[in-house]
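=== RUN LOG ===
request id: a7f3
mode: sequence -> structure
chains: 1
length: 374
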Amino acid sequence: MEVRFMPVGRSQTWAAALATGLLLAAAPARATDVQSMVRIKGLETNELSGMGIVVGLPGTGDSTKRSLHVARYLHELHRNNGLGVQSPVELQGSDSVAVVTITCTIPGTGAREGDRLDAVVSVIGNAKSLKGGTLLQSFLRITKDSEADAWVSGPIDIDPTNARRGTIRGGVQLLTDFRTSAFAPGSREVTLILNPEYAGYPVASMLADQITQQLQVGATGGEGRAEVRSPNEVVLTISDWAWERRAATLNYVLTMPIDTSLLEMPARVVINRRAGVIVLSGDVQISPAVISAKGLSITRIVPEPQPTAADPIFYTDHHVRMSTVDDGLPTTRARLADLIDALDALKVDFETRVDVLYELRRLGALHAQLVEVR
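=== RESULT ===
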């Protein structure tokens, strides 16, 4: 199955938007703010992890007949609770339990002792489903050698796309504080990390200039300045006199409006697999290419425009021609938006679209940066 396009016209800057998990954006000039373009170093997320056992499964748990590991886990559980099981072999035959991994994400803003958070549990062994199960109390740690940082237990909400995975809402209770800060001890610097779609010296330089200009307004000599340290790093230095009100200064910087028309960004294709979204920015074009894609076909019914239901004729094509006509002038490039339009109309799945983009880049036919964000 193929997608074909031939150079028969001159391409122009595209602007289109698609639904169903695909967003194409060539937004007009508008204002955004600094916090939409960066993250702050020091405000990273943390992850607690551990293992536990889910009970109460209606015959869909791990098969202890085939897994001595599960039986040993149950044996340890019985022993810790004072039950008189002599050997793991005695526990073989149960299929109402499952051994799972447990993870909990601490947000970048931190959390305090006693806070309740969600946990995600996933089957390790051969359990078919966690539906109807409850996780027994387990402990979570930030590293394997640390003391317990949290405990978790509770009923499981099953992932609708995967019965071997689920979430325990508010099942985690923290046993310690997790504090984060944008301000490093002994330093008056705050490091702003540009999001991948903005990373590069042109945007970083513009951002640093804009921040410095705004902070230097007034007769006080300015609350601070910003400078570029790397293509994805802008460092904000807060003045001595403003340090006592550093949180207010940082808030002022993060909420500064930025005119996106000033962003000197190259053409980019940004892929977010988790959200199922593809975003095009700039004048994204492609050179002539022939692409094979699984499941890609076009079916036409003849006669047209009024085919009869009793005696239709079906023609199935395995390619689609993409016209690149623009004011009747020839060109050797086409709009990537047109290709995405064609793939969307043919209901090609998201992962196949991503594969097509990577293949275009490999061939040198994609005239844009390809960036994945997570």
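=== NOTES ===
Confidence is low (pLDDT under 50) at residues 1-29, 82-92, 322-331.
Helices lie at 68-80, 201-215, 246-254, 336-345, 350-362.
=== END ===
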